[in-house]
Amino acid sequence: MTAGRSGLFRFAAVPTWPRRFGWRLLTYLAFSLAAWLFPPWGALITLGLVLGLGRAIRWGAWFKALGWLWAFVLAPLGVGLLWGQPGGATLVPAACRCLTFLVLLAASQWLSATSTVFEIRAALDGLFRVFGRRVAGALSLAGALAICFIPWVVEQLEAVRQAGELRGVPARRPLLALRALTVPVFVRMIEKARHTAEALELRGR
Which residues contact 183 (CB under 8 A, 6 or more apart)? Predict the structure, then answer.
């Protein structure tokens, strides 16, 4: 049950580096902290490392499949343009924050596409074990679903978009396409989250 198995991705038989999931999780956490705490250079270096480590992922297709998630990525820049200080003093920090958001999404995609949701939960369960077995189980389940959520959304957006094109939904009319995509995507996401949570609960017993 590998997250992200769709036409967007092509996988190597074994992730090139790190091969052990525990190290991949630590790498993901380090990437996220570097991008968030040290923009823009930390985010730029992290983005380059993510693209290199995830070279088995078709990143061009992934960027295209983000769809309306670009509104989330570019939101800081939009706020800076509309309500920023005169002279554009807030535009550079806003652009850095946009880059940070993009890097966080790419890092989540890399981890999700090279790992199974069971590996993610098992590693998080070990990290949270200090809080007790029951609390660790709940936190690891929530954490695994959260890490895989954005990659799943991107995957479902692309699947529903392709289905919409086959049914005649015009791709050049974004408002109509967004209205047509909203309900199918949410239905698919709810079903996928429910099935994954049930599988994780059964696997964890």
Answer: none
Is the CB of residue 123 less than 8 Å from the CB of residue 22? yes
| Tokens of residue 43, six digits | 């985010």
**Other CB atoms closer than 10 Å to residue 27's CB: what's the count?**
18
Pair of tokens at residue 38: 């040290």
Where are the chain's structural domains?
21-204
80 in Cβ contact with 93 (< 8 Å): yes
Helix (H, G, I), strand (E, B) or coil at 164: helix
**What is the distance between the alpha carbons of residues 17 and 191, in angstroms, rounded to a whole number?**
32
Q: Mean pLDDT, consecutive 10-residue segments, the chain of 205 residues? A: 44 55 87 92 93 85 80 88 73 90 90 81 85 85 77 71 65 56 67 69 60
Enter the pTM of the model: 0.70
